[in-house]
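Risk register update: the risk of archive-format incompatibility is retired. Evidence:
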Amino acid sequence: MPIASFEQVFELYKNLDKQFFDLVAHTAHLGEDKHPLFIQIVELTNGLKDRLVRFMASEENEDTPAIGFQLSEDINALMPLYREWISFLNKRMKVN
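Archived output:
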């Protein structure tokens, strides 16, 4: 099974956190914070961030690499939703 170290997962987390912050600010500016896709992204991201924080705070053990790999896969799975949302926001900006 592929593995991911604390450092690899933390780098992914920092990237996700910055993108999420930018996405939320942009969404609020356009008044689209009630859109179902945005709500889904927020819920998935917050759940993932909670799991990441617990992972980073845990003691390293034999399950750490597998858990880290799953978290990194989950982060990577969120990226298409982010891109879809950003595309939606860009189209909204062009309309306004």
